User: What shape does this take?
Amino acid sequence: MSWIDFTWPMLTGACVTLGLIHLRIGLRRTPGAGHLLFALNALVVAVYSCLELALMRADSPARYLAVMRWMDIVGGGVLVASLTAFVWVYFGTGRRWLAILPSIVMGVALIPDLLPVPKVVFLQLTKVTTHQALGGASFPVADGVRNPWNLVFYLGVLLLLVFVLDASLTLWRRGARRREAIVGGAIVFFVLVAGIHSGLVDAGVVRMPYLFSAAYVAILVAMGIELSHDAAHAERLAGDLHESEQRMTLAAQAAGIGIWVRDLRSKAIWASDKWRELLGFAPRERLDFERILQRMHPDDRQVVQHAMESAVANKSGYETEYRLMLPDGGTRWISSHGAVESDAAGQPIFIRGASRDVTARRQAEQQASLLQQEIAHVGRVTMMGQLAASLAHEINQPLGAILRNVEAAELMMRNSSPDLDELRAILADIHQDDQRAGAVIDRMRTLLKRRDLDMRPLDVGELIAEAARVARGDAAERHVRLDVDVPGGLPRVRGDCVHLQQVLLNLILNGLDACDGIQGRDRRVTVAARADGPRAVEIAVRDTGHGIPVDSLSHIFNPFFTTKANGMGMGLAISRTIIEAHGGRIWVENEDGVGATFRFTLRTVDEADTQ
Amino acid sequence: MSTTAPTVHVVDDDASFCTAMSRLLRSSGLAVRTFGSAKEFLAQLDPQAPGCVVADLRMPGMNGLDLQAALAKSSNPLPVLFLTGNGDIPATVLAMRGGAEDFLEKRVPMDLLLKAVQRALARDVREREARARQRDVRSRLDALSPREREVLGHVVRGRLNKQIAADLGIHERTVKLHRTAITTKLGVPSVAELVRLTQEAGIFESSGLTFPKGQ
Assistant: This one.
C-alpha cells in the first residue's frame, strides 16, 4: 500500500462528489445544460482516474495495453468532447468550427485504438519495468516502438487548447466576470499540464505515472470556488428575500392591504391572510374567481370582470372599486389595483393585485356629496322664493284666462242659441292654457325636487332657453332686458339639467339685482355661449349693472359672502360647487366701466366620456 | 260729450287672457277692445270716447302704473281697473293713490269683476259730466273781472260785506255792486250755490286736480 493507492481513489471521489452536485443543480435549474455537461465531465474524469490507477497496477504488457486503450478512448474521446461542450455552453463565446475541430482530430487520433489489434501509443511493446517513486511507491513504465500516429492525438490537444483559450479571451474582452476567468484559466492549465505531461511520459522523456486526473484538480477547485460563490450568493438572496418579505408584510399590514395572485393558466388563486379577512374567506378556504365575484354587489360584478379582462387583453394594470356584500347585510367598499405579468413569449400568466378597505373614505365622500346636494337644494328653494312673485304671475295668467273663458261660456250657454264655434274656440283655449300653467308648475317642481346628480348629454341652447323662460317675468318686472345669444352647432355638454339651470338662474338673478338702480343706460342681462376649444363650452352671463367692487372679486364665490342687504351669500358658493362637480370652472370679470360677466365652462359629451 | 256706447279697454300682454276677458265682457253685453301693451292702447286712445280700462299691473315695457300716469295727462282720463296675479302691496298703494278705480285679483269671481267694471263705467259717465260742468263754470268765471273774482273769493269763505270792504279798502256799497254783478254773470242766486259752484270748478283749491277726490 503506497500513497498512490489512496491519492487516486481520493481524486476519483472528489470528481464524483462535485459531478453529482452539479448533476443535481443541472436537473433542478431551467437552463441547466452547463451544470449537466460539467457533471458529465467530472464523472468521465472519475472513470479516467480509475483507469490510471488500473494502469499503475497492470501486471502484464497485455493488460497494460488494454488499460491504455481505454484511457485513450475515455480521455481523448469522451473527455475532450464533453469538455468542449461544457466550455461551449458555459462560456457561450466559443467559435463553432474551433469547437468541432478538436473532436474530429481526436476521432482520427483514436483510429489505432479501434483496430482489431489495437496499436495504442506503441507499435510494439517490448517491456514493462517497475520504477520506484518517492515514499516507497512503485509504478510501471513501458518501453517499445512508439506509434508516430500519437502526434495526431497531441494535435487534437493543441486544438482544444486553442479553442478554450479563444473562448476565454473573448469572454475576457467582453468584460467577463472574475468567476469565468478562473474557470477558463483552470481549464487552460489542465489542458496544458495534462497534454504536455502525458506527451512527455509517452515519449519516454520523463518516467512518471500519467497525471491527467491530478491536473484536473485545478478545474475541480475552480468549479468548487464557483459553487461556493453561488451558495453564498443564494444565501444572501434568501436573506434579502426574507427581509423584503418581512418589510412587505409589515407595510401591507400597516396599510391594511390584502395581496393576491391569480395564475391565469391553472386558474389558482393565492391570497394573503389579510385579503382573506377583507373578503371574508377562511385561511385555508379554496379560492376561485367565480366565488369571489359572488361576494360582490351585483351591480359591480361586471365592472370588476371587465377591468380584469381588459387588463389581461392589454397586458396592463387595472384599478377598480367595488362593494362587497357582507353576511350581516352590510356593505364594504374595496379598492383593488393590480397588474398583469407576462411570460417571455408575451403571454399573460399572472395577475397580481392589492386590495384595501375604503369604506370609510367612500362613506365620507357620500356624506359630503349628500350634503352638497342638500345645500344645492336649499339654494334652489331660496331662489324659488326670489322668483315666487314672477312664478305666481306666470301661473295666474293662464289660470285667469281659463276662469274668464269658463265664465264667458256659461254666459253664452244661457242664450237659447249659443255660438257653438265660439264655444269650441273657448274649449281649445282652455286646454292650451291648462297646459301652459302645467308647464310652469312642472318647471318649478323640477327645480324644487330634492335629487342626486343625474348626468346626461344636454343641449346648451335648450338649457339656457329654459332658464331664461323662468327668469323672463322677473326681468320684465324689473325693466331689465334679458337676451340670449347662443350660436347653432355647439357640441352637447354632459351635466345635470336642474343643477345647471340653478347656476344659470342664480347668475341671471344676480345680473338683474346688479341692474337695480341703474338709470340713463341700457339695463340688460345677456346669456351667451360659445365653444371653448373642442372639449368645452363656455357660458357667459353679462350684465350692465354696477360691476363688482375690486376688493370683493377674490372672495365673491366664498360661502356667506354677500354684498346684498338681504342676501344669504350662498348662491355663488353653491354655483361654484355645482360647476366643479361637473368638471368645469367658474370665474368673474368686471367689464370696462359697465357691469360684470360671470363665466363658466362645461365639458362636452365626448370629453366627459373619456374621463 | 260723446254719445257712443262706452267701451271697456282690456290691456294685457297675455293674448290668451285678453281673448278670454273680451269674451266674458262681450257676453255680458259690453263693448270691448283688447290691446297687447300699454303703448298700443295709448296710441289708439280717443279722449272723447267713454269707457274704462282693465289693465294688468305687471307688463313688460310700460307696466300698469306707467299706463295710469300717462292716462292722467289726457283731458278725459278713463277710470283704470287693475288686475294682478298676486297682491303686491307697494304697487297697490301706488295704484290707489293714483286714483285707481279698483284693484282686483286676476281670478276674482265674475260678478265682482263685472260690478267693478260697471262701477268704473258709471264713474266715467259721472266724471265726464262733472268735467263738462266744471268746464262750463270755468268759462263763466272767466267772464268775471279780477276785482269781482277777488270779492267772490271772500264771499265763498263766508265773510260779510263790511269785512270784505275793510279788507279790500273799498266802500261797502261797491262790494254790494260787485256781488250783484257776480250773481248776474254766473246765474247763481244764493251764496250756497256760489260755494258749490266754485268748489266744483276747483278754483279756490290747489289746482291741477284731474280726478275729483272721494266717492
About this structure: Residues 85 and 106 of chain B are 5 Å apart (CA to CA). The beta strands of chain B are 7-11, 31-35, 51-56, 80-84, 102-105.
